[in-house]
């Protein structure tokens, strides 16, 4: 099987690694002229780590990232609402890592180079369209430096992993607009001393006036950590959704100016950030088809979702394992791609919709509503244990990382 992968991001590289393990030698074409350490933190939860572990990548992530211990929820006054252990601390067979997206990408890229060769990823190849006949697919590229057309590349199938702004998706769904629910995000990283357990994925405050998500993503020898933070604020216009867009402190920092708690000084964290990026909370409406003959969408190209609950990357990794398993079983590639779509489209569409209306931090919004944004005396008087279970565990089930799902699903791609 001569498979062409368009896009060498998280989905494209993971797909290449799984296909390689199944005995194929895919070619990857990436639009970027070089990989730059752009982005901030990403959570790799056990349902994704199960698959990365099967590729032998756990040790690389353990060195670069931080094994998370707990999910913690606080109101906007810094009062503790709820915590629960995560990853292996919660009995999962696989760890939960909080990691810089660039470190995750580097682990994948190094593995691709080691296993498929240094020429496996062709950089500066921007796909502009795909054409197919009964026997093959032809991909048209342009040079990302000059915009000049490059020699077309022919293969048996195309797996389009070209992300949120996928050129291949645009070919099949012209005129699509991003889904924007009116939330903007500002993100950054700040070197700081550890807070709470030193490995707490912590959500503070409701979406209105503003939510703040913090977790450490790197340890330093002097005992400090790189703390990833995300301010999510309801309101504002849809800005360009590009991971490189810089943001400004004065656009959002006032919301958090009084958030100085005994366990975290939020204004200080924002003030000392190494940089600030702005990104809107965007997704796309789920579509009915990803597979078009010999071409399929995968990862963010197939199911772009709000970056909540660590699922953008996780679902791409699960897609990668799934398509490799199906291709390894053999058969007509057109049918195999249709089978991939049949297996993965519905569950990911459910996550896209759930992330819009009932994200993992719905618990904080409930507490905010019941206390009218005021301090509470006893959390037990505000929300019951059953309600907490329902809100937090409910999301985990939809997202495929409740403990029975994550521990039981085997990684079925032949070694
Ligand atoms: C630079 C960057 C930084 C990011 N930072 C974060 C972050 O900090 N936190 C977070 O939660 N998520 C981040 N994301 C998104 C996150 O990686 C994805 O949501 C998720 O991992 C799904 O991965 P994906 O491979 O489907 O998409 P992506 O990771 O977006 O990868 C898509 C890849 O396709 C390439 N590409 C795009 N168009 C073409 C084309 N026409 N031809 C060839 N190649 C093309 C892109 O350059 C990219 O390498 C970032 C994505 C990028 C590209």
Describe this structure in words.
The protein has a domain at 3-38 and 102-177 and 286-357: FAD/NAD(P)-binding domain (3-Layer(bba) Sandwich), CATH 3.50.50. By secondary structure, it is α/β, with parallel strands linked by helices. The strands form 4 sheets. The chain has a 7-stranded mixed sheet, covered by helices on one side. Strands 8-2-1-12-19-18 form a 6-stranded mixed sheet. Strands 3-7-4 form a 3-stranded antiparallel sheet. Helix content is 31%, strand content 25%. Helix 1 links the parallel strand 1 (3-6) and strand 2 (27-29). The model has no long low-confidence stretch (mean pLDDT 93). Flavin-adenine dinucleotide binds at residues 6-12, 29-32, 38-40, 42, 101, 126-127, 161-164, 167, 243, 299-301, 307, 312-313, 316.
What is the fold's blueprint, element by element?
Blueprint: E1 3-6, H1 10-21, E2 27-29, E3 41-44, H2 46-54, H3 58-64, E4 66-67, E5 70-74, E6 80-85, E7 97-100, H4 101-116, E8 121-122, E9 125-132, E10 137-143, E11 153-155, E12 157-160, H5 167-172, E13 179-192, E14 200-204, E15 211-219, E16 225-234, H6 266-271, E17 276-283, E18 291-292, E19 295-297, H7 311-328, H8 333-357, H9 362-371, H10 385-399, H11 403-408
Parallel strand pairs: 1-2, 1-12, 2-8, 5-14, 12-19
Antiparallel strand pairs: 3-7, 4-7, 5-6, 9-10, 10-11, 13-16, 13-17, 14-15, 15-16, 18-19
Helix pairs in contact: 1-4, 1-7, 2-7, 7-8
The structure holds flavin-adenine dinucleotide.
Flavin-adenine dinucleotide binds next to helix 1, strand 9 and helix 7.
**DSSP strand content:** 15-25%
CATH homology superfamily name of the domain at 3-38 and 102-177 and 286-357? FAD/NAD(P)-binding domain
Shape: globular
Which percent range fits the helix content?
25-40%
Low-pLDDT parts are none
Structural class estimated from helices and strands: alpha/beta
- Over the alpha carbons, how many angstroms does the gyration radius reach? 21 Å
Going by CATH, the architecture of the domain at 3-38 and 102-177 and 286-357 would be: 3-Layer(bba) Sandwich
Ends apart, CA distance between termini: 17 Å
- Numbering strands along the chain, what is their spatial order in the largest sheet? 6-5-14-15-16-13-17
Q: What is the count of DSSP helices, taking H or I runs of 4+ residues? A: 11
Q: Under CATH, the topology of the domain at 3-38 and 102-177 and 286-357 is which? A: FAD/NAD(P)-binding domain
Order of helices and strands: EHEEHHEEEEHEEEEEHEEEEHEEEHHHHH
